């Protein structure tokens, strides 16, 4: 019985560590472009190739994989970039009047993980420098450095 319990524990820990959590947020730039940020937990093996792509209504908006071709609606309008634990979509000329469901896919292993969000242009917040800091993790760095810097001034 002890062996089964130990085996089950290691199995569950292995499954839990292999999972990727995703968070999706979006905002509207002053130039009426859509910025979407898909934050994910990187795989424990840094050598694994990361691929990110966005879809809406079964159409490919953009991808970090250059061999994939986006739908003609989004061609030359969408750029997708990935860095560390963040995948960013910039869609120029965002003019959708109707809410649409956008899905971010992150592929680090054989099975891609996905997260979806409904984007309604009338309810989008305007992108700001503070929002960019929140997405890039710079706010956390700033928080850690503020106290030591202030203590030096006193």
Automatic annotation (TrEMBL):
InterPro entries: THY1
MF terms in GO: GTPase activator activity; integrin binding
Keyword match 4Fe-4S: no
Residues making up the signal peptide according to the UniProt record: 1-18
Superkingdom of this protein's organism: Eukaryota
Keyword Cell membrane appears in the UniProt entry: yes
Keywords, sorted A to Z: Cell membrane, Disulfide bond, Glycoprotein, Immunoglobulin domain, Lipoprotein, Membrane, Signal
One cellular component term from this protein's GO annotations in UniProt: myelin sheath
GO BP, one annotated term: cell adhesion
Subcellular location per the Swiss-Prot or TrEMBL entry: Cell membrane
PANTHER family, sorted: THY-1 MEMBRANE GLYCOPROTEIN
Protein's UniProt name: Thy-1 cell surface antigen
């Amino acid at each position: 019985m002890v062996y089964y319990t130990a085996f089950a524990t290691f199995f569950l820990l292995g499954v839990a560590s292999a999972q990727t959590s995703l968070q999706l947020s979006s905002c509207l730039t002053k130039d009426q472009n859509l910025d979407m940020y898909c934050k994910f937990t990187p795989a424990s093996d840094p050598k694994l190739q990361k691929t990110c792509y966005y879809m809406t209504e079964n159409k490919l908006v953009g991808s970090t994989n250059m061999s994939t071709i986006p739908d003609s609606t989004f061609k030359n309008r969408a750029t997708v970039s990935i860095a560390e634990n963040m995948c960013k979509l910039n869609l120029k000329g965002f003019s959708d009047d109707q809410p649409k469901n956008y899905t971010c896919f992150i592929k680090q292993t054989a099975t891609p993980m996905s997260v979806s969000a409904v984007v309604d242009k009338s309810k989008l917040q305007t992108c700001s420098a503070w929002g960019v800091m929140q997405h890039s993790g710079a706010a956390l760095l700033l928080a850690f450095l503020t106290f030591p810097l202030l203590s030096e001034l006193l």
